[in-house]
Fold each of these.
Amino acid sequence: MAAPEDPLSRRFRPVRFLAGALLLGAVFILAIAALVVFVLTGGRGLAPAQGPVPVVTVVSAFVALAAALLAAFLPGVLTRATQRRLAAAPPAKAADADGLLAVRHTALVLSLVLLEGATVLGAVAYMLEAHALALAVVVGAVLMMLLRFPTEARVRAWLNRELGRLAARRLGRPSPAA
């Protein structure tokens, strides 16, 4: 009898491809913003701030902060909701792993999309106002995307940890510490 296919190997490649595409898009928008500011406008920006406060840059910083917070907390919220749903069903390792991987990948893509949105807004702010804070927003969001990039080892470790938590939840015990 053949062993069942590993759910991680079946789903890992497309999600990594999508994460890479989102990351590449963020890097490209950063490169475009740098090209506009340093080459086309001589370091001034397309519409420099008229007052002491670069409004678009400040707005982009707040949006980036909100995106970073959502990207940090959204995966946990979605995972806990999925664990509650799976814990109510009869144990089935393959179905459990599939359900957990589905929520992991969905949460990852949502997190990366939020961060890429912050990157785009920060890049627009940088192109307009050429303020260092806007550039920091873009670079920070790209770095956060890099830190979230799904490697097979990270996803496998996460899946094993969450399967353990799910088993503990089914037994009515507190789940192991993170």
Amino acid sequence: MFGPRIAQYVIDGWGWRAGFFFLALAALAPLPLLYLWLYEPRDKSARRPSEAPAKEKGLSVRQALRTPLFWLMGSASFLWLSCFGGVYFLIPFLSFAGMSRAEAATDAGLMGITTTIGRLTTGALMDWLPAPYVCTFVFLMEAAAFAALGLFETRYVVVAVLAIGFAHGTENVGFAYCIARYFGMKSYSTIAGLLGLFSGIGLALAPLVFSSLKTHTGTYRIPFLVSGAMAGGAGLLFILVGRYRSVSSASEPIIAAH
């Protein structure tokens, strides 16, 4: 919420190198809090050998890799993070459209507001509605936001930025929730890490694809429309995820919930 504006203030006052030092300090700031207060229940039970944690249920990594669902979610994750070129180039785009760097940074910071709201809202909705459908709706909304930036430039920039931030908050909640519901907790961390490879590749390619399109077309319209198409593709793939499955044990297959 405040990071882009503060970073821009630091850069304007002391240069871009100071901006990177500011980002480094911001990244280190949470470490004392994590060290002092972030624990899992099994961290405490590990200190008492007589109270071993209950065996967690779910699929093994090998079983998960054999399911079409894993590759479907991986493809959706890849497409969704591939659209992030539009986020990386948001401030240059707004500056190109005539805004000052300070104004552009302030508008980009609006994403922080709806990212937080998105996590809280979609997290609550997923207790009542199927998570894949919630993700589909939000990702299609983000696709429309990118398309609006490409077609109308800064006319609807505030609404578009707020929608993109909301979708960003949903992704963090939605993928984590779906991994637990569809694959169980037995190999949750490893499965999440493997699916993270898809998103990591998409995130790495996003700025390259966006900047290449901008260079070849000479306009931001096509790159933003392509980003919208990727976000929309991720949303459509989530429709195919289907109903929740119940995971009874690592040795039993996933079955559709009634």
Amino acid sequence: MPISDYETITVASDRVTVDLLVWRRYKRYAPGIYEKTLDVNPHLAPYHKVSPFLPPGVQVFMPIDPDIMAGKGPDMPTVTLFGPRA
């Protein structure tokens, strides 16, 4: 995952989670970004001990992956509930 930069996001409302911030920024499945966001934001750990929601005013450093932004994500395997097609 080639992280090119980081963007600072300030939580402005109630009931905001890290995964919601990732979804709002990328607007698509972004594998590994949630984990990378938690890695570069150790100051969020005390909030996650109490609740998944971040308090308003907290700043979050969001990693920017230009490949995901351009729509070039990793290929995901197709999973089916009914087995392979004949």
Amino acid sequence: MPKGRLRQIVRGEVQRTSPPSLARGVAIPFWMWAGAAALLALTVYSTGTGSSWSRKYEPSNARAAALLQHRHDLEAELERTRRESVILTIPPP
């Protein structure tokens, strides 16, 4: 088989089996651009909404953290008081 014919066969096989690429002029469909744009818009909206909610509830979260800390302090004080009461109620020998 001559080299020229072999090259033609190989070139034809490569063209037949290779997937289409953007370099050969295959365009990206409109629906794909629309989907990417919708995803970008949703991401921007969600980021903005999340930030505004975070700022809105920041004082409430700080108050809840302060109350939780106060509760822990009260529980620690209660435990100390219970220990003291046990010591004070022990009968003398």
